[in-house]
Amino acid sequence: MIYLDYQATTPLAPEVAKAMHPWIEEKFANPHSPSRWGHEAAAVIEVARKQVERAAGLKGGSIAFTGSATEAINWALKGTVERADEGRNRIITVATEHAAVLDTCEWLASRGIDLTVLPVGSDGRLDLNLLARELDDRALLVAVMMVNNEIGVTQPISEIASMAHGAGALMLCDAVQAFGRLELCDGPDLVAVSAHKIHGPKGIGALWMRKGKEPAALIHGGGQEQGLRSGTLSPALCVGFGAAARLADERQTRDYDHAQKLWTAATHALGSGWIINGSTAHRYHGNLNVRRQGVDAARLIADLRDIAFSLGSACASGSGRPSHVLRALGLDYREARSSIRLGFGRYTKQHELVDACERIAAAAVAQEKLDA
Ligand code: PLP
Description:
Bound molecules: pyridoxal-5'-phosphate
Structural class: alpha/beta
Radius of gyration: 21 Å
Number of strands: 12
Order of helices and strands: EHHEHEHEHEHEEEHEEHEHHHEH
Strand order of the largest sheet: 2-8-7-6-5-3-4
Strand content: 5-15%
Shape: globular
Protein backbone atom coordinates (compact mmCIF):
# COMPACT_ATOMS: atom_id res chain seq x y z
CA MET A 1 0.00 0.00 0.00
CA ILE A 2 1.15 3.54 -0.73
CA TYR A 3 -0.01 5.65 2.20
CA LEU A 4 -1.02 9.18 1.17
CA ASP A 5 -3.35 10.18 3.99
CA TYR A 6 -1.03 12.05 6.37
CA GLN A 7 -3.75 14.51 7.40
CA ALA A 8 -5.96 11.67 8.67
CA THR A 9 -3.14 10.14 10.69
CA THR A 10 0.59 9.44 10.44
CA PRO A 11 2.58 6.22 10.84
CA LEU A 12 4.01 5.66 14.31
CA ALA A 13 7.73 6.55 14.33
CA PRO A 14 9.92 3.53 15.24
CA GLU A 15 11.66 5.65 17.89
CA VAL A 16 8.25 6.36 19.47
CA ALA A 17 7.25 2.68 19.51
CA LYS A 18 10.57 1.86 21.19
CA ALA A 19 10.14 4.55 23.86
CA MET A 20 6.60 3.38 24.63
CA HIS A 21 7.44 -0.32 24.78
CA PRO A 22 8.53 -0.69 28.45
CA TRP A 23 5.48 1.32 29.55
CA ILE A 24 3.19 -1.11 27.77
CA GLU A 25 4.94 -4.39 28.57
CA GLU A 26 6.43 -4.02 32.07
CA LYS A 27 5.80 -0.74 33.81
CA PHE A 28 2.17 -0.57 34.80
CA ALA A 29 2.20 1.65 37.90
CA ASN A 30 -0.38 4.36 38.34
CA PRO A 31 1.55 7.63 37.88
CA HIS A 32 -0.58 9.25 40.57
CA SER A 33 0.19 6.72 43.30
CA PRO A 34 2.86 7.39 45.93
CA SER A 35 4.99 4.24 45.43
CA ARG A 36 8.48 4.35 43.91
CA TRP A 37 7.03 2.92 40.68
CA GLY A 38 4.31 5.54 40.71
CA HIS A 39 6.92 8.27 41.09
CA GLU A 40 8.93 6.84 38.21
CA ALA A 41 5.84 6.91 35.98
CA ALA A 42 5.01 10.46 37.10
CA ALA A 43 8.58 11.55 36.32
CA VAL A 44 8.48 10.26 32.72
CA ILE A 45 5.16 12.04 32.21
CA GLU A 46 6.79 15.32 33.30
CA VAL A 47 9.66 14.71 30.85
CA ALA A 48 7.07 14.11 28.10
CA ARG A 49 5.21 17.29 29.08
CA LYS A 50 8.41 19.33 28.69
CA GLN A 51 9.11 17.69 25.31
CA VAL A 52 5.65 18.63 24.01
CA GLU A 53 5.98 22.16 25.42
CA ARG A 54 9.43 22.60 23.88
CA ALA A 55 8.20 21.43 20.48
CA ALA A 56 5.24 23.84 20.71
CA GLY A 57 7.74 26.62 21.45
CA LEU A 58 5.10 28.91 23.02
CA LYS A 59 5.92 31.21 25.93
CA GLY A 60 3.89 32.02 29.02
CA GLY A 61 1.88 28.85 29.48
CA SER A 62 1.89 25.09 29.88
CA ILE A 63 0.08 22.03 28.56
CA ALA A 64 -2.40 19.62 30.04
CA PHE A 65 -2.67 16.19 28.44
CA THR A 66 -6.07 15.17 27.08
CA GLY A 67 -7.46 12.10 25.32
CA SER A 68 -7.41 13.78 21.89
CA ALA A 69 -7.32 17.19 20.24
CA THR A 70 -11.11 16.90 19.96
CA GLU A 71 -11.29 16.78 23.75
CA ALA A 72 -8.81 19.69 24.04
CA ILE A 73 -10.99 21.79 21.70
CA ASN A 74 -14.23 20.88 23.51
CA TRP A 75 -12.59 21.78 26.80
CA ALA A 76 -11.18 25.08 25.50
CA LEU A 77 -14.54 26.21 24.09
CA LYS A 78 -16.90 24.97 26.79
CA GLY A 79 -14.53 25.76 29.68
CA THR A 80 -13.98 29.32 28.42
CA VAL A 81 -17.73 29.88 28.18
CA GLU A 82 -18.04 28.51 31.72
CA ARG A 83 -15.69 31.14 33.16
CA ALA A 84 -16.77 34.06 30.91
CA ASP A 85 -17.35 37.51 32.36
CA GLU A 86 -20.88 38.83 32.37
CA GLY A 87 -21.85 40.19 28.96
CA ARG A 88 -19.17 38.33 27.00
CA ASN A 89 -21.08 35.65 25.16
CA ARG A 90 -19.93 35.75 21.53
CA ILE A 91 -17.76 33.17 19.80
CA ILE A 92 -16.37 33.97 16.37
CA THR A 93 -15.02 31.20 14.17
CA VAL A 94 -14.55 30.32 10.50
CA ALA A 95 -16.52 28.14 8.08
CA THR A 96 -13.52 25.93 7.26
CA GLU A 97 -12.76 24.83 10.84
CA HIS A 98 -12.66 21.16 11.82
CA ALA A 99 -15.88 19.59 13.11
CA ALA A 100 -14.35 19.52 16.59
CA VAL A 101 -14.65 23.32 16.61
CA LEU A 102 -17.76 23.82 14.48
CA ASP A 103 -19.92 21.18 16.13
CA THR A 104 -18.93 22.28 19.63
CA CYS A 105 -19.71 25.90 18.72
CA GLU A 106 -23.10 24.83 17.33
CA TRP A 107 -23.82 22.99 20.55
CA LEU A 108 -22.90 26.09 22.56
CA ALA A 109 -25.11 28.19 20.28
CA SER A 110 -28.01 25.85 21.04
CA ARG A 111 -27.46 26.82 24.68
CA GLY A 112 -27.48 30.56 24.15
CA ILE A 113 -23.99 31.50 22.94
CA ASP A 114 -24.04 34.06 20.16
CA LEU A 115 -22.11 32.36 17.33
CA THR A 116 -20.65 33.98 14.23
CA VAL A 117 -19.15 31.74 11.54
CA LEU A 118 -17.12 33.86 9.12
CA PRO A 119 -16.81 32.89 5.45
CA VAL A 120 -13.49 32.49 3.61
CA GLY A 121 -12.42 33.63 0.16
CA SER A 122 -12.01 31.23 -2.77
CA ASP A 123 -8.40 30.74 -1.63
CA GLY A 124 -9.59 29.50 1.79
CA ARG A 125 -8.21 32.54 3.65
CA LEU A 126 -10.08 34.63 6.18
CA ASP A 127 -10.54 38.31 5.32
CA LEU A 128 -9.33 40.12 8.44
CA ASN A 129 -11.60 43.08 7.68
CA LEU A 130 -14.58 40.79 8.22
CA LEU A 131 -13.16 39.74 11.56
CA ALA A 132 -12.49 43.36 12.57
CA ARG A 133 -16.13 44.20 11.88
CA GLU A 134 -17.35 41.41 14.16
CA LEU A 135 -15.09 42.10 17.13
CA ASP A 136 -16.86 44.04 19.85
CA ASP A 137 -16.97 44.13 23.64
CA ARG A 138 -19.24 41.09 23.68
CA ALA A 139 -16.62 38.91 21.98
CA LEU A 140 -15.44 36.14 24.28
CA LEU A 141 -13.37 33.89 22.04
CA VAL A 142 -12.08 33.75 18.46
CA ALA A 143 -11.34 30.22 17.22
CA VAL A 144 -9.24 29.83 14.07
CA MET A 145 -7.07 26.91 12.95
CA MET A 146 -3.49 27.37 11.80
CA VAL A 147 -3.35 24.80 8.97
CA ASN A 148 -6.54 23.44 7.45
CA ASN A 149 -6.76 19.64 7.52
CA GLU A 150 -8.51 19.36 4.16
CA ILE A 151 -6.76 21.93 1.99
CA GLY A 152 -3.57 22.77 3.92
CA VAL A 153 -4.29 26.53 3.79
CA THR A 154 -2.79 28.59 6.62
CA GLN A 155 -4.34 31.55 8.45
CA PRO A 156 -2.50 34.58 9.93
CA ILE A 157 -2.84 33.39 13.52
CA SER A 158 -0.67 36.00 15.28
CA GLU A 159 -2.58 38.86 13.64
CA ILE A 160 -5.91 37.26 14.50
CA ALA A 161 -4.78 36.78 18.12
CA SER A 162 -3.78 40.43 18.50
CA MET A 163 -7.09 41.55 16.98
CA ALA A 164 -8.96 39.31 19.43
CA HIS A 165 -6.91 40.67 22.34
CA GLY A 166 -7.59 44.23 21.18
CA ALA A 167 -11.29 43.57 21.72
CA GLY A 168 -10.68 41.90 25.08
CA ALA A 169 -11.37 38.41 23.70
CA LEU A 170 -9.30 35.24 23.92
CA MET A 171 -8.07 33.21 21.00
CA LEU A 172 -8.17 29.44 20.51
CA CYS A 173 -6.03 27.93 17.77
CA ASP A 174 -6.54 24.38 16.50
CA ALA A 175 -2.90 23.68 15.63
CA VAL A 176 -3.35 19.95 15.04
CA GLN A 177 -2.11 20.03 11.44
CA ALA A 178 0.61 22.60 12.12
CA PHE A 179 2.24 21.22 15.26
CA GLY A 180 5.57 19.53 14.53
CA ARG A 181 5.39 20.53 10.87
CA LEU A 182 5.66 24.33 11.08
CA GLU A 183 6.73 26.72 13.80
CA LEU A 184 3.59 27.55 15.79
CA CYS A 185 2.46 31.17 15.66
CA ASP A 186 2.70 33.14 18.88
CA GLY A 187 -0.38 34.91 20.23
CA PRO A 188 -3.21 32.44 20.97
CA ASP A 189 -4.23 31.80 24.56
CA LEU A 190 -5.32 28.22 23.97
CA VAL A 191 -3.75 25.80 21.46
CA ALA A 192 -4.93 22.26 20.72
CA VAL A 193 -2.54 19.58 19.43
CA SER A 194 -2.67 15.83 18.82
CA ALA A 195 0.02 13.10 18.97
CA HIS A 196 -1.15 10.91 16.11
CA LYS A 197 -0.61 13.63 13.50
CA ILE A 198 3.10 13.79 14.38
CA HIS A 199 3.97 10.07 14.27
CA GLY A 200 2.86 9.55 17.86
CA PRO A 201 0.16 7.28 19.30
CA LYS A 202 -3.60 7.75 18.96
CA GLY A 203 -5.64 8.50 22.06
CA ILE A 204 -3.65 11.46 23.37
CA GLY A 205 -3.69 15.18 22.70
CA ALA A 206 -2.93 18.30 24.68
CA LEU A 207 -4.21 21.77 25.37
CA TRP A 208 -1.61 24.52 25.73
CA MET A 209 -2.98 27.23 28.03
CA ARG A 210 -1.66 30.70 28.66
CA LYS A 211 -1.18 31.22 32.41
CA GLY A 212 -4.33 32.79 33.85
CA LYS A 213 -6.44 31.90 30.79
CA GLU A 214 -7.08 28.26 31.66
CA PRO A 215 -10.65 27.12 30.88
CA ALA A 216 -12.82 25.77 33.67
CA ALA A 217 -12.54 22.02 34.22
CA LEU A 218 -14.89 19.81 32.20
CA ILE A 219 -13.83 16.45 33.59
CA HIS A 220 -14.03 16.16 37.36
CA GLY A 221 -12.61 13.46 39.57
CA GLY A 222 -9.14 12.75 40.94
CA GLY A 223 -7.83 16.26 40.32
CA GLN A 224 -5.06 15.31 37.88
CA GLU A 225 -3.52 17.90 35.56
CA GLN A 226 -3.65 20.67 38.21
CA GLY A 227 -7.28 19.89 38.95
CA LEU A 228 -8.22 20.89 35.42
CA ARG A 229 -8.56 17.51 33.72
CA SER A 230 -9.14 14.54 35.96
CA GLY A 231 -8.39 10.97 34.94
CA THR A 232 -5.39 8.66 35.29
CA LEU A 233 -2.83 9.53 32.65
CA SER A 234 -1.33 6.76 30.52
CA PRO A 235 2.47 6.85 30.90
CA ALA A 236 2.83 4.90 27.63
CA LEU A 237 0.78 7.44 25.64
CA CYS A 238 2.46 10.43 27.31
CA VAL A 239 5.94 8.98 26.69
CA GLY A 240 4.96 8.30 23.07
CA PHE A 241 3.66 11.84 22.60
CA GLY A 242 6.82 13.27 24.18
CA ALA A 243 9.11 11.16 21.98
CA ALA A 244 7.14 12.10 18.86
CA ALA A 245 7.28 15.80 19.77
CA ARG A 246 11.03 15.68 20.42
CA LEU A 247 11.60 13.94 17.10
CA ALA A 248 9.38 16.40 15.22
CA ASP A 249 11.25 19.29 16.84
CA GLU A 250 14.66 17.87 15.92
CA ARG A 251 13.62 16.99 12.38
CA GLN A 252 11.36 19.93 11.60
CA THR A 253 13.51 21.53 8.88
CA ARG A 254 14.34 18.15 7.32
CA ASP A 255 10.71 17.02 7.32
CA TYR A 256 9.57 20.39 5.96
CA ASP A 257 12.08 20.33 3.10
CA HIS A 258 11.11 16.74 2.31
CA ALA A 259 7.40 17.73 2.11
CA GLN A 260 8.30 20.62 -0.22
CA LYS A 261 10.19 18.27 -2.57
CA LEU A 262 7.36 15.74 -2.50
CA TRP A 263 4.84 18.48 -3.37
CA THR A 264 6.84 19.50 -6.44
CA ALA A 265 7.22 15.87 -7.53
CA ALA A 266 3.50 15.13 -6.98
CA THR A 267 2.19 18.17 -8.88
CA HIS A 268 4.54 17.31 -11.74
CA ALA A 269 3.51 13.64 -11.80
CA LEU A 270 -0.23 14.42 -11.80
CA GLY A 271 0.27 16.44 -14.98
CA SER A 272 -2.13 18.97 -16.46
CA GLY A 273 -5.88 19.22 -15.95
CA TRP A 274 -5.79 19.39 -12.14
CA ILE A 275 -6.67 22.53 -10.20
CA ILE A 276 -5.28 23.08 -6.70
CA ASN A 277 -8.00 23.80 -4.11
CA GLY A 278 -7.08 26.73 -1.88
CA SER A 279 -4.20 29.17 -1.82
CA THR A 280 -0.92 27.89 -3.24
CA ALA A 281 1.09 30.64 -1.53
CA HIS A 282 -0.33 30.28 2.00
CA ARG A 283 -0.32 26.58 2.69
CA TYR A 284 1.52 23.62 4.14
CA HIS A 285 2.91 21.65 1.21
CA GLY A 286 2.43 18.20 2.72
CA ASN A 287 -1.22 18.53 1.70
CA LEU A 288 -2.19 18.51 -1.95
CA ASN A 289 -5.92 18.93 -2.49
CA VAL A 290 -6.79 18.96 -6.19
CA ARG A 291 -9.78 18.59 -8.45
CA ARG A 292 -10.26 17.65 -12.06
CA GLN A 293 -13.35 18.43 -14.04
CA GLY A 294 -15.68 15.48 -14.53
CA VAL A 295 -13.81 13.10 -12.22
CA ASP A 296 -15.74 11.04 -9.69
CA ALA A 297 -13.28 11.05 -6.80
CA ALA A 298 -15.06 8.27 -4.90
CA ARG A 299 -14.71 6.02 -7.97
CA LEU A 300 -11.00 6.89 -8.21
CA ILE A 301 -10.50 5.79 -4.61
CA ALA A 302 -12.44 2.57 -5.28
CA ASP A 303 -10.40 1.87 -8.45
CA LEU A 304 -7.05 2.37 -6.70
CA ARG A 305 -7.46 0.31 -3.56
CA ASP A 306 -3.72 -0.06 -2.92
CA ILE A 307 -3.27 3.71 -2.64
CA ALA A 308 -4.59 5.27 0.57
CA PHE A 309 -5.85 8.76 -0.21
CA SER A 310 -8.91 10.71 0.66
CA LEU A 311 -11.92 12.56 -0.69
CA GLY A 312 -11.57 15.64 1.47
CA SER A 313 -11.28 14.93 5.12
CA ALA A 314 -11.36 11.51 6.73
CA CYS A 315 -14.71 12.38 8.32
CA ALA A 316 -16.30 13.75 5.15
CA SER A 317 -15.10 10.70 3.20
CA GLY A 318 -17.03 8.34 5.44
CA SER A 319 -20.25 10.34 5.45
CA GLY A 320 -20.74 10.70 1.71
CA ARG A 321 -21.43 14.42 2.29
CA PRO A 322 -19.41 16.84 0.19
CA SER A 323 -16.77 18.57 2.24
CA HIS A 324 -17.92 21.73 4.07
CA VAL A 325 -14.45 23.18 3.49
CA LEU A 326 -14.59 22.83 -0.29
CA ARG A 327 -18.12 24.22 -0.30
CA ALA A 328 -16.88 27.20 1.77
CA LEU A 329 -14.32 27.95 -1.00
CA GLY A 330 -17.28 28.31 -3.35
CA LEU A 331 -16.89 24.96 -5.11
CA ASP A 332 -20.17 23.52 -6.33
CA TYR A 333 -21.30 20.01 -5.50
CA ARG A 334 -19.70 18.47 -8.62
CA GLU A 335 -16.38 20.24 -8.10
CA ALA A 336 -16.28 19.12 -4.49
CA ARG A 337 -17.04 15.55 -5.56
CA SER A 338 -14.19 15.66 -8.10
CA SER A 339 -11.59 16.64 -5.47
CA ILE A 340 -9.00 14.40 -3.85
CA ARG A 341 -6.60 14.99 -0.98
CA LEU A 342 -3.08 13.58 -1.06
CA GLY A 343 -1.17 13.86 2.22
CA PHE A 344 2.49 12.95 2.55
CA GLY A 345 5.47 13.52 4.80
CA ARG A 346 8.40 12.03 6.68
CA TYR A 347 8.17 8.40 5.55
CA THR A 348 6.80 8.97 2.04
CA LYS A 349 9.23 7.84 -0.63
CA GLN A 350 9.32 10.11 -3.64
CA HIS A 351 9.23 7.26 -6.18
CA GLU A 352 6.13 5.77 -4.51
CA LEU A 353 4.37 9.13 -4.52
CA VAL A 354 5.22 9.71 -8.19
CA ASP A 355 4.01 6.22 -9.06
CA ALA A 356 0.75 6.81 -7.17
CA CYS A 357 0.17 10.22 -8.81
CA GLU A 358 0.79 8.81 -12.28
CA ARG A 359 -1.70 6.02 -11.61
CA ILE A 360 -4.28 8.45 -10.22
CA ALA A 361 -3.87 10.65 -13.30
CA ALA A 362 -4.19 7.63 -15.61
CA ALA A 363 -7.32 6.41 -13.78
CA ALA A 364 -8.86 9.90 -14.10
CA VAL A 365 -8.20 9.92 -17.85
CA ALA A 366 -9.66 6.39 -18.15
CA GLN A 367 -12.81 7.62 -16.35
CA GLU A 368 -13.13 10.50 -18.78
CA LYS A 369 -12.89 8.13 -21.75
CA LEU A 370 -15.43 5.76 -20.26
CA ASP A 371 -17.86 8.60 -19.56
CA ALA A 372 -17.37 10.30 -22.96
N1 PLP B 1 -8.42 19.40 14.28
C1 PLP B 1 -7.87 19.09 13.10
C2 PLP B 1 -7.46 20.18 12.16
C3 PLP B 1 -7.70 17.75 12.74
O1 PLP B 1 -7.17 17.45 11.55
C4 PLP B 1 -8.10 16.74 13.64
C5 PLP B 1 -8.00 15.32 13.28
O2 PLP B 1 -8.48 14.90 12.25
C6 PLP B 1 -8.64 17.13 14.88
C7 PLP B 1 -8.79 18.46 15.16
C8 PLP B 1 -9.04 16.12 15.90
O3 PLP B 1 -7.89 15.48 16.43
P1 PLP B 1 -8.02 14.14 17.29
O4 PLP B 1 -8.01 13.01 16.30
O5 PLP B 1 -6.80 14.11 18.17
O6 PLP B 1 -9.27 14.23 18.06
